[in-house]
Specification:
The complex is a heterodimer.
Chain A: H1 2-6, H2 46-55, H3 58-77, H4 118-154, H5 156-171, H6 174-185, H7 189-200, H8 203-216, H9 220-227, H10 232-269, H11 280-286, H12 296-323
Helix pairs in contact in A: 2-12, 3-4, 3-12, 4-5, 4-7, 4-8, 4-10, 4-11, 4-12, 5-8, 6-7, 8-10, 9-10, 10-11, 10-12, 11-12
Chain B: E1 20-31, E2 34-46, E3 51-55, H1 62-70, E4 77-85, E5 88-89, H2 95-104, E6 106-109, H3 113-116, H4 123-133, H5 139-152, H6 158-162, H7 171-183, E7 189-193, H8 201-218, E8 221-226, H9 229-235, E9 238-243, E10 246-252, H10 253-258, H11 263-270, E11 298-309, E12 312-325, E13 330-334, H12 341-348, E14 356-361, E15 364-365, H13 371-378, E16 381-384, H14 398-408, H15 414-427, H16 444-456, E17 462-466, H17 474-491, E18 494-499, H18 502-508, E19 511-516, E20 519-525, H19 526-531, H20 536-544, H21 550-566, H22 587-590, H23 598-601
Parallel strand pairs in B: 3-8, 3-9, 6-7, 7-8, 13-18, 13-19, 16-17, 17-18
Antiparallel strand pairs in B: 1-2, 1-4, 4-5, 9-10, 11-12, 11-14, 14-15, 19-20
The chains are: A mainly alpha, B alpha/beta.
Chain lengths: 332, 605
């Protein structure tokens, strides 16, 4: 069966004209192009093919739009730092309570027990959760990729040292370490927390990247590069990592969604973002007792967490399908 | 031998009744780039005791055709037309009927015996599974039948083999087991999809002998799918040639191979290198220009290469090999798999270290160099690997791929690099428009041309080519070889040409080195080694290589059998006892026990 999917269309040298646009990444003949080739013929790179497949994944595309809207609203509504947003109310100010603070046109998300505008608070929490999630995603991806690539490419004692170190990080209970370190780093704000979380969550990616690199380094084009005398650094950065980018990006999106959940749990336990700042987890923990009486105080931040995590997971799914066309189920 | 509880021998259908027939078969695949018509309406039939060879290059639809007979196609395939196996119409069967048909009426022999067998089940389990699924024999009876089957296909000590796992067997034995599984339920027709492509020539000859005796003795029809014209000449009664989903020519082996009518068949046959014809088939090879006192381009002295393995003794892949390649000379390195030929090539490239001995390139010893010197030396060696799919970085456009060695050695500026790349594209006969294309957009032959262009970028004095044409279709191989000889004449590089294909070596090499198990068996000028071999191993190797001409191939086959008898070996054949009883399935008694899916039940729709 692989004959059908992976082989290139042969017998091609029999065509009257040498056709160069014969196969795509899946290896199926694209209808045998006829006629002479114009010099500036459309050429799809691997990246373009991936983008094309990604944009055909409806769930991922919709998630991307939803996540985009969430990000834009979170940052523009109440503004960032000194820049004011379009939402007239602040998240620190207390307003007169209308009724028991249930959502109204004036306060769409309702008001908390002290009369603060809950929309502004949730937006602030979303901002922080997003910042933490993306920073953790980026930091853990960089660390994991580096360690995995070095271990996979050099093998030998470098691999032993790096992978044993990874094993040590894996056996440490994540939540406990994050709680202790997070509190210590709490003084330096949310970026400190993000850094700490990033530095303890790279292990899964490191193992994935190592596996990928181990198989890539045996491929002939890497051997060919070695045979012309290419330096190891250039081989890693130019030949190996670009080919592992599928694994890396997919894993990065998934680590973003798990970082959101980790931050939520930490804040809920009281080890994450400290008042007066707030995050979605902090909001839930603060108002957990209000669940039965004023359910909107629980549901709004909960809904945001769900939305963000779901969107990121869907995007990760779409990326995985886009990078690995063999996993793509034909939907006909 | 065994007493199987079988009521009556299977009724052999009268000659002339097709056991497998395709009528107006068309297959279309739905893909994200639109529909692909893999098979475009073909008619073909296989009669009992007949071998029909379906010939074509990759992508011609021959494997797809055979898969339709088993109802094993991916879900995005649309099949139209009528396929009959015996008296059953495949299209009209449900999942249960299909499973019942597979194995009983039609069985498959796959290309790669290692992947066709399940590595975690014993040979015995896999053999008896089919018997039990089809209700032919159970328990002890099934084991007895399995022993009988292994004996038939010529596997020694069958009782012991039953308890072994596939990895404990050699490639040839594994393929025999696959054949034993295929004949287990006595199918009317066997589909053999490139059954010998993954095997060495000597093993290939044995497996072909086995298949031939199988159809003679069991009167089974065989649909043989292959790209190898030598195998066709050796096996086929009738030949059908496929091109891009169409049958372009059918006829007896003699008609098609000796008097082809269609243009494509003619070209296909002209492209097959013919062992024994020597150079000149695809352009002449320049005589060696170097004077004897010149430094050799590559000199290996008493080379030993070992692989260290954890927990096992070190494995000596190459043992005391001395050979040299003079400047401008092509040396063919021949051997079967595991002979260490690729290991030597990698060592000559400096990719793996030598345990002892010397590797010197134009007088510089590889083993004594470090850093800058080493890098400078590497400029002078080019390399071409076997697999065009993995030898180009899929993320780089062709222009960058070819220019990469220049960038690594910081040669020239962007414009001169571009000029050099375009010049090389012309030299390997690729259109300049591929400059901005990506490897996946090119065909296998085009990619291999790019590989060769990259190897020549730095004007090397030595080219190491590791099976550069083995993964290509014959017609593409012919063009690449033609181009290769032209390039060698023009650039006068020395070349270490590794190949398992004696015919390719015969038309290319000045000198030939024959390897077996890491040791040199014989080396010398091409005519001497390939046409008048002195060593027994070389004789066997040459006798086993099939040629694409039925009559000559029959003569060669008989000569080989004579040689084997003279050397005290057996000729492989199916051993059928006189009282051999054909098994008949008891379809409605055993039903389908819920076992592991396995070969026969796999892929039920």
């Amino acid at each position: 069966m692989s004959d059908i999917r992976n082989s290139t269309s042969g017998g091609e040298d029999y065509e009257p004209q040498l056709s160069a646009t014969s196969t795509d990444a899946v290896g199926l003949a694209a209808g045998g192009s006829a006629g002479p080739l114009p010099g500036e013929d459309k050429s799809y790179s691997q990246g373009q093919l991936v983008a094309r497949r990604f944009f055909r994944h409806r769930g991922a595309l919709a998630s991307m739009i939803v996540l985009g809207v969430v990000i834009v609203v979170a940052f523009t509504s109440i503004g960032v730092g000194p820049i004011p947003g379009w939402w007239p109310k602040g998240y620190t100010l207390q307003y007169d309570k209308i009724g028991d603070g249930a959502p109204t046109w004036e306060y769409p998300f309702g008001q908390d027990t002290g009369g603060k505008d809950y929309f502004a608070l949730v937006m602030r929490g979303t901002q922080f959760s997003l910042i933490i999630a993306f920073s953790v995603g980026i930091i853990s991806t960089i660390v994991g990729t580096l360690i995995g690539a070095l271990a996979g490419f050099y093998r030998g004692w470098i691999e032993s040292v790096l992978m044993r170190m990874t094993d040590v990080f894996i056996v440490i209970p994540l939540l406990a370490v994050a709680a202790v370190l997070g509190q210590m780093a709490g003084g330096s704000g949310i970026l400190g927390l993000a850094l700490v979380l990033g530095l303890v969550t790279w292990t899964g990616l490191a193992r994935l990247v190592r596996g990928e690199v181990l198989s890539l380094r045996e491929r002939d084009f890497v051997l060919a590069a070695q045979a012309v005398g290419t330096s190891p650094w250039r081989i890693i950065s130019k030949h190996v990592l670009p080919n592992a980018v599928g694994v890396i990006i997919v894993s990065a999106t998934l680590s973003i969604s798990s970082a959101i959940l980790l931050e939520t749990s930490l804040s809920y336990l009281g080890f994450g973002v400290q008042p007066p700042d707030t995050s979605l987890g902090t909001l839930i923990s603060e108002y957990q007792s209000a669940f039965t009486t004023r359910p909107w105080l629980f549901w709004w931040p909960g809904l945001m967490i769900l939305t963000i995590a779901l969107c990121v997971n869907f995007i990760g799914d779409g990326l995985r399908d886009a990078f690995d066309p063999r996993q793509n189920r034909n939907k006909d | 031998m065994t007493t199987l509880d079988i009521s009556a021998p299977g009724s052999v259908s009268a000659a002339g009744d097709a056991v497998l027939s395709f009528e107006d078969l068309a297959v279309t695949f739905k893909t994200e780039f639109g529909d692909v018509h893999a098979v475009k309406g073909i008619d073909l039939e296989v009669r009992p005791g007949e071998v029909v060879a379906l010939v074509g290059e990759s992508g011609s639809g021959k494997s797809v055709t055979s898969m339709t007979a088993l109802g094993l196609l991916p879900r995005n395939a649309r099949v139209s037309g009528t396929i009959r196996v015996g008296d059953k119409v495949v299209g009209g069967l449900d999942g249960r009927g299909l499973r019942n048909m597979r194995g009983n009426d039609v069985a498959m022999v796959f290309q790669e015996p290692m992947t066709a067998l399940n590595p975690v089940l014993t040979i015995g389990d896999q053999l008896t599974e089919g018997l039990q699924l089809h209700g032919i024999a159970f328990g002890k009876l099934a084991t007895a039948r399995a022993v009988e089957l292994l004996t038939m296909v010529g596997i020694p000590e069958p009782e012991r083999r039953l308890k072994q796992y596939p990895h404990e067997l050699s490639g040839g034995q594994r393929q025999r087991v696959v054949i034993a599984m295929a004949i287990a339920c006595d199918p009317k027709v066997i589909i053999a999809d490139e059954p010998t492509t993954a095997l060495d020539v000597t093993v290939q000859a044995d497996i072909l002998d086995l298949l031939r005796s199988l159809k003679d003795k069991l009167d089974t029809g065989i649909l043989l799918i292959t790209h190898n014209m030598g195998v066709v000449a050796d096996m086929a009664d009738r030949v059908a040639v496929m091109l891009k989903g169409d049958l372009v020519e059918t006829g007896t082996a003699d008609q098609v191979l000796n008097h082809p009518r269609h243009e494509y068949t003619k070209r296909l046959l002209a492209a097959v290198p013919h062992l024994g014809s020597g150079p000149g088939q695809f352009g002449d090879v320049a005589p060696v220009a170097a004077a004897p006192e010149d430094l050799p381009a590559l000199d290996l002295g008493n080379l030993v290469i070992e692989y260290r393995r954890v927990g096992k003794p070190t494995f000596r892949a190459v043992d005391d090999v001395s050979l040299s390649v003079a400047q401008g000379e092509i040396v063919g390195l021949v051997g079967e798999s595991g002979s260490g030929k690729s290991t030597i090539a990698k060592c000559a490239l400096g990719l793996i270290p030598a345990a002892s001995g010397s590797v010197s390139i134009l007088g510089n010893d590889f083993t004594k160099m470090r850093g800058k010197e080493l890098k400078a030396l590497r400029r002078r060696i080019g390399v071409v690997f076997q697999d065009p799919a993995s030898s180009l970085n899929p993320r780089l456009p062709i222009g960058d791929v070819i220019a990469e060695p220049l960038v690594v050695h910081k040669d020239g500026d962007e414009r001169s690099r571009r000029r050099r790349v375009l010049e090389l594209l012309d030299a390997v006969e690729l259109p300049r428009s591929v400059y901005n294309r990506y490897p996946h957009e090119l065909s296998g032959g085009q990619r291999q041309r790019v590989s060769i262009a990259r190897a020549l970028t730095l004007d090397p004095e030595l080219l190491v080519a590791d099976e550069p044409t083995s993964a290509l279709d014959v017609s593409v191989q012919a063009n690449v070889l033609k181009m290769f000889t032209a390039l060698q004449e023009r650039y006068k590089f020395a070349c270490l040409f590794v190949s398992h294909d004696l015919a390719v070596i015969d038309l290319l090499a000045h000198r030939v080195v024959v390897l077996q198990n890491g040791k040199i068996v014989e080396q010398g000028p091409r005519e001497e080694v390939l046409h008048h071999p002195r060593e027994e191993y070389t004789q066997r190797l040459i006798a086993a290589a099939p040629v694409p001409e039925p009559l000559e191939q029959r003569r060669r086959r008989e000569a080989r059998h004579a040689l084997l008898t003279q050397l005290g070996d057996d000729v492989a054949e199916l051993r059928v006892e006189d009282d051999y009883e054909r098994p008949t399935p008891r379809q409605d008694q055993g039903g389908n026990p819920s076992g592991l899916g396995g070969l026969m039940g796999a892929g039920g729709n």
